[in-house]
Amino acid sequence: MPKRSLLIGAGVLVVLAIGAFALTQGGGEEAAAPVTEPPPPTTTTTTTTTTTTTTTIPALAFNGDGTVPEIDGLVEALYRSIGEQAPQPPLPEGLAQRLGTATTAPPPQIQAATIAADLKYDRKVAVVRAGEDSILLADETAGWKIVGADLPSLGLEPWFGPPVRTVLIVGSDARWNEVVERSRSDSLHIITATADGAGSIVGIPRDSWVTTPSGGSGKITDILANHGIDGTFDTVQAVAATEIEGWILTGFLGFDIMSEAFGSFEIDLPQRIPRGSGFPGFPAGPQLVEPADQLLLLARIRKTLPNGDFDRSFNHGVIMQAALREVQRRGYEGLPELMRILDDTAHRSFTAGELLNLGATALLLDPDQVTNVVVPGSVGSTSGGASIVRIGSGADAVFADQADDGLLNDSAG
Question: Taking the alpha carbons of 278, 283, 286, 288 in that order, is the dihedral positive or negative?
């Protein structure tokens, strides 16, 4: 089957060259009224004077690139709202509060460039680059709105949503011609990211024996086929005893296309993987893994691994860490196109704006501060002749630790 080749940057709008505008300053001086000094007092009087200091925001010369005039207007209003030169545009509550704490005036001259991408069903996302600042916007069919921002020019920390983000990533074993939502889930990972640049990846073995949405017992991998993604999502939340924001689901075809879009991956494997029937071998340590077939085969290997599905689930986390580095290499400018690729290759419960904020949150992470673990469990049990995994008691500590602050401080060792 031919493969689609996607290049990062294809479809990204051209950033127009912008000329600098001179800062306009106005205001004249009024003649001072004559003052008659009173005679010196005959008695000593103590006078307390209160001085009020007003911060003057200089006039702002804003110049967008004109790619999307509505976006230019929103971003200009955001900057002019500092010092109340103009009303604040509609913003998420958290971002509005963050903007209200700005202690630095915006630069007197701002040149902005817009990078946008169209998603499915008339949804759009964009990133505006204004000097060192990045403003995220989305149009979810009701007009453009600012959804997040990184504004170092104003002395502010980035705001891309809640301080801890929690997402369920589900990899379906649907082949290229099968229905992703009605196949088994081979990969289940709860991923967290925190505003201070750390995070965690917690894998759940696919053969884990759990309570199903119908009240019976079964493998967690079968719930996607029998109860859909909502049933899988609810089950994982119940197993982890934690609230998860939403889910992202893809299958073999989506994984194939996404990996081709990224190109070669710098993977650091913790252990050697012997060659197996239909599968290549991989040495331990850092290595370049080619996209599509090679990366997909690496993600599927389990029979030649010492701990089977536990090791495979851990390797999935290793691949995610490598993908994180690739996302960061592209920076804010690459986000709209990455969102378009993800939208074409995966199902999700997130809105376009939420998805864009999640992508921006990934840019803040330190890959070396993202802990990758698989919940402990035991093998050797069977049900109906099929092998199953009994999730161990230590899993509760892992899930509780992750739910506490998104990190694995106490249970990762």
Answer: negative
Which pair of structure tokens corresponds to residue 303?
A: 């029979």
Q: 164-405 belongs to which homologous superfamily?
A: LCP protein (3.40.630.190)
Element (H, E) at 269: strand 265-269
Pairing assessment for the beta strands 265-269 and 209-211 based on DSSP bridges? unpaired
Q: How far apart are CA 195 and CA 159, in angstroms?
A: 8
Q: What are phi and psi of 351, to 5 degrees?
A: -70, 170
Q: At what angle do helices 252-262 and 309-345 cross, to 10 degrees?
A: 80
CA distance 116 to 220: 38
Mean pLDDT by 10 residues, the chain (413 residues): 33 24 30 40 39 50 94 96 85 96 91 96 95 97 97 96 96 91 96 95 96 96 97 98 97 88 89 92 94 85 92 95 92 96 94 96 94 93 88 94 91 58
Distance CA 245, CA 240 (A): 13
Pick from 54, 78, 44: nearest CA to 64 = 78
Q: Report the DSSP beta bridge partners of residue 149.
A: 135, 159
Contact 376, 394 (CB under 8 A): yes
Give me the pLDDT at residue 162, please: 95
* pLDDT for res 374: 97
HEC string of 356-369 equals HHHHHHHHHCCHHH
